[in-house]
Amino acid sequence: MNNPLKTLPEFASVQEEQRFWESHDSSDYLDWSQAQRVVLPNLKPSTKTISLRLPQHLLDSIKVAAD
Question: Three-state DSSP class for 51?
Answer without folding.
Answer: coil
